[in-house]
Amino acid sequence: MPQSTRSATLDAGPAGPGAGPDPTTAAELAAARRRLATPERLRSFFAPRSVALVGASDSSGWGQFIVASLATSGFTGPLRPVHPTRPTAFDRPTVPSLRDLDEPVDLAYVLAPTRAVEGVLEDAAAAGIRNAIVLASGYGDGGGEQGREAEASLVRRAVELDITLLGPNCLGYVNAAASVAPFGLGIVPPLRRGPLGIVLQSGALTSNVLAFARAHQVGISLLTSMGNEAVITTADVVEHLISDDDTEVIGLFLESVRDAPRFVQLAARALERGKPIVALKVGRTEAGQRTALAHTGALAGDDAVVDAAFRQFGVIRVGSLEQLLITSGLFTSGQVPKGRRVGVVTASGGACDIIADRSTDEGVRIVDFAESTTAKLKAALPPFAAAHNPLDVTGIVLAERGSAQAGLGDVALEAVVDDPGIDFVFNMLALPAAEPPDPSIIERRMAQIATTTQRSPVPIVNFSATCSDLSPFAQSLLDKHGLHTLAGIEFGLTAIGQALRWQETRALDPRPPSTEQVAAPAGLPSGPWSEARSRDLVAASGVPVVPAELVADADAAVAAAARFARPVALKICSAAITHKSDIGGVALGVQGDDDVRAAYERVHAAGRAVADDIEGVLVSPMRAPATELFVGVTVDPSFGPVLAVGLGGVFIEVLEDVSLRLLPVDAAEVRRMLGELRGAAVLRGARGTRPADLDRVAEVVAQVAAAAAGLGPALQTLEINPLRVDGDSVEALDVLVVTNPVTHDPAGAGS
Amino acid sequence: MPQSTRSATLDAGPAGPGAGPDPTTAAELAAARRRLATPERLRSFFAPRSVALVGASDSSGWGQFIVASLATSGFTGPLRPVHPTRPTAFDRPTVPSLRDLDEPVDLAYVLAPTRAVEGVLEDAAAAGIRNAIVLASGYGDGGGEQGREAEASLVRRAVELDITLLGPNCLGYVNAAASVAPFGLGIVPPLRRGPLGIVLQSGALTSNVLAFARAHQVGISLLTSMGNEAVITTADVVEHLISDDDTEVIGLFLESVRDAPRFVQLAARALERGKPIVALKVGRTEAGQRTALAHTGALAGDDAVVDAAFRQFGVIRVGSLEQLLITSGLFTSGQVPKGRRVGVVTASGGACDIIADRSTDEGVRIVDFAESTTAKLKAALPPFAAAHNPLDVTGIVLAERGSAQAGLGDVALEAVVDDPGIDFVFNMLALPAAEPPDPSIIERRMAQIATTTQRSPVPIVNFSATCSDLSPFAQSLLDKHGLHTLAGIEFGLTAIGQALRWQETRALDPRPPSTEQVAAPAGLPSGPWSEARSRDLVAASGVPVVPAELVADADAAVAAAARFARPVALKICSAAITHKSDIGGVALGVQGDDDVRAAYERVHAAGRAVADDIEGVLVSPMRAPATELFVGVTVDPSFGPVLAVGLGGVFIEVLEDVSLRLLPVDAAEVRRMLGELRGAAVLRGARGTRPADLDRVAEVVAQVAAAAAGLGPALQTLEINPLRVDGDSVEALDVLVVTNPVTHDPAGAGS
């Protein structure tokens, strides 16, 4: 079986060592690599029933860790040490080479040094082994040319040999669901199983991630470190996790988004299937980008675009390791709020205060209780407690614990879950660190909360006051009753805000960019276009453009001006002149015929002084001052076409206040972009101007985006600056298009 | 002794029940109350050697908690239960009343119901007891008139009886330094002693605070819950802690800042003495203010002013309970960074990435290592590790633990602390949860870090990757070697940023507002002033004001206009007209004599139509467009005069981008205010305007502030809008002053 698959791969195009990678071979190599990392292949890659450990002796720290990790994960299958000279390792007999195994193992963990790795892979293939983890570093991670070449060679070898390879420079993975953890650092037991799949572009974070998850009742399905992603990439694992039945939530630590278009497709698919992706993406700042680049050799890309793409396709971006796991934990709990109105139940007025502030931050609304709720609460609470939201049942629940009042907190919870005006309950849970002398009281309380949770018409999100580890006793209590609790008000409310935004994004059902490569229209120029040509392009997409006439002499300019309401503007029109004002190529507010004539001559002469290729002079009516927008589409090297919308003036120049989206966008999406602007109030008429017709603005901006998309791979920039907005009048005053040269390849490939 | 003090208090003015509080008595009552809560009184209040428990039986949950808390704190003094009917309580014989004690105790904890409390206080006084904690609620906390009256009566009784009283509606305190904890909820042992004093305006947070502090190696001196602050106030306790030798750092949970001027004085004193105050002040949002009000009955005040006052006087404002304790913990550690350049040492590239982003957020700079450092690192590190900042010594330190490579992390730390270009080291510390099989390795490592810390020329701030509890083993390790570690990168870097800002604020040595009540100048009007009079006021303080002539007829207007560069502006001048434009009282850009004449008549007529009291018409030269600032001084009901500075236009109208300070401010402080504005780049010439002479702007704004301060208690508003800024030309274009009526009281009291 491996033999035949291997031949099929080789048939697709030989790529022996030293063969210069011409484009055809490179594309085929990429495709062949992808075939090694399909969800089907990864399903078996991550669930081996037998493992060989190549090149590890008893004295190797890595080897010790791998053996210990496999034991912690509950792995009971054969573990075969391979060592050229030592007869035993880890209390097991060795074989000198993988070729000497009596039957193939499902996975080889290669501890051999860099220079020996390819030889080991050959041995593996010869032994019928199709999966390997490579620990050795000094490949692409080193940053040098030699390392990059070694990595390229490794990839070609893996493809030739039909070996699915994780790494190099990789610690391995921990599959809790399948009880197997070929992982090269220590993992502290117990390993908690659960529905969170985790992908780390930094394996050294594994122990921190596992420890924090364990301390907060977050169970994992698969955790994998990625190493250099020579064969299996982050996107491959994400695709696997989306189809993996053991995984309900996906958590990522990302240094870079390597195959951005594919990542976006996967994000959209995960969103559609209701599997949240929670991502800690570093490189938000220049220092962060520099550091990530130093560690990975991969550029992080424009963070604003990454951020926009994530928000657009529901990838929840978090800022810390704690938040990564706490937000993921909320999703795994089964108690995910579906709306923004909360009922809060605590035994602490101080906690209520903090929650009130943090709820506002997250757009969570603490609404008034219904009268029916208040009545029930008043009947149960002591007279000095106020029966309002957020609810403080007061310290009496603690002081009178075990007495007749014991159920007070639970009575309150019972009353609040039935409130008709709330979408979820935020319920503070104080759990003992150790088993109390009489555990029956807390057991009863947990059972009561579990019963209420079962019958509650709305989710109950439990939380502790601070981010503190759950003790083993507290975890056993929660597990027994099927309850989850969020680690502290601070991270907990952030998680709730993120879950709410995720659901709102999901409801929008965002369309990912098409994966089909659109051909560029034929006959396009390359480089900057003249304003007249640029205007024609957007006008053809339905974008309203200020009237203009292109004239070739002063008389024609006067005649054109006469057809417009004076004053008029005159602008030199040439593809060779993009900064018209700078060279004196613009005359504004021109009134009389003589002035128009003079302006024409001046503008034209200024143009002639710097360029031969003058199309003429554009004459347009001047417009009164109004709100101005900037609308631009550029092409991000990773993510492709990106639409930017912002208010003009200080908003874009000083505050860099823009909203970004990947294309395609529709008018509804643009409407949301406008709402995200810090200066959004200006569009609503905050400065005494006419409130903008936002639907009309959105429609026009979507037409601009469509015009840009229509240029296909030729698009470099399409910019409308300004787009003038005055009530329902929306009009482009200046348009600039810049295109790339495009080779028209009849086969459609290679672009 | 109590008798004589009591008499002295009574001599100061009788305030028997039912006596209507006329102002003199109220002021004297306040002063008498303050005398009960001096640092001297509080020193003994918080360190009783004997405690009576009044009204607690064995079945009372509160009583059980108090007895248990005293035991947890290590209290070994006499504990005397007092109960009218039961012969014993908590295995001790009771007495029926405090009067029956054979000798006075230092503190009575009063568990009696509200109606019985005053009687118990009388018993206490009769028994020579001068300190009491009152648990009962239903006073001012209830929100009703009856409760407020009961609280006023309680205060008068405490003053009469010379009893220092904490509460009512108060759980008590935990004095770890003095081993005494009369506290009405459970505290989980062990109680960790240390230099952090904590004041909580919500007692129910105590257990959360103590648990989190304990889990993160943060020891406390005194923690007190405040209750209703009827006698002892938060400010009193802060004053006590500032002078308390056991306390080096002060942590606060604040629902409201009750006596804001005194709080500011204390903040300035704490800053000057180098005792950081870290505060979680709730009520940032409308929902938070509503919630805090519901719990305390005290209004939270304008949060923007609270925030400005805190920043101005070095009170570190945090957003979460975790941050309150982690930031406090950094200050207690003795390893506080003094500058912003960091050297980072980790064994995780992923941690480096996160640190790089978060450092940027906090203004911490990851600088390049010196060549000498790089050389030392290269010699020690494996070839695949890069010797740059942030430093990842790679997972090899873990894999080779215990081998020859064991000291790698420490060698790296040794090299980095000596780097001449850094101000502190951020050192990642992975601590085992439980004692490892061979503890000598980690012991050696800790000893090495301790040695390096001792000899290091810069502070070493250790941190863990996530906010996770320190296990008892980890704590014992750290304690043994005198080391501290911050809980996670997220909170840890926030703490570092806060510590750095605190030190920078301290270096500025901010002057608090004067506590002396300045008298208002005689002869001021009350209400809005005319523009002419307003201009004169600020001009007298040195503020440059656009030239203007106040004219009373059209001829004079023409003559005035002739003396200025045309065009000119004409504005109606009347104290009765504050919105001149709205009533047609302004003419702008007037050129010729006839136009001036017509404008005068129009503006004057518009004024006459709405007001009788017209001073005339102001004629001024028009100024060319330039950068415009808003400068205003208003009076906050809690904090007093507040200066607001912002850029005009969208910055103030749409973005509400203002910087606030309490008065007094000098020009240097105003310079910092300008730097805080989001639109600061506009002043630096971002929009093609002349860069502003910021020193000149600051000087003028400080003069405006001085003019406002000179009005003393008469000040209501002083507003310059706009202050025109064009390079080094700074000029007020419009000025408005509004004053309060002031009763001139020769004694200076009652204002």
Helical content class of chain A: 25-40%
Q: CA-to-CA gap between the ends of chain A?
A: 36 Å
Number of domains of chain A: 4
**Rg calc of chain A:** 32 Å
- Which chains share the greatest interface? A-B, 100 and 99 residues
Structural class of chain A: alpha/beta
Q: Based on CA inertia axes, which overall geometry of chain A fits?
A: flat
Strand composition percent of chain A: 15-25%
CATH architectural grouping of the largest domain in chain A: 3-Layer(aba) Sandwich
Determine and state the CATH class of the largest domain in chain A: Alpha Beta
Low-confidence stretches of chain A: 1-23, 402-406, 747-751
Tell me the major beta sheet of chain A: 7 strands, antiparallel
Q: What is the CATH topology descriptor of the largest domain in chain A? A: Rossmann fold
Mean pLDDT of chain A: 91
Number of helices of chain A: 26
- How many strand elements of chain A? 30
CATH homolog superfamily of the largest domain in chain A: Succinyl-CoA synthetase domains
Oligomerization state of this entry? homodimer
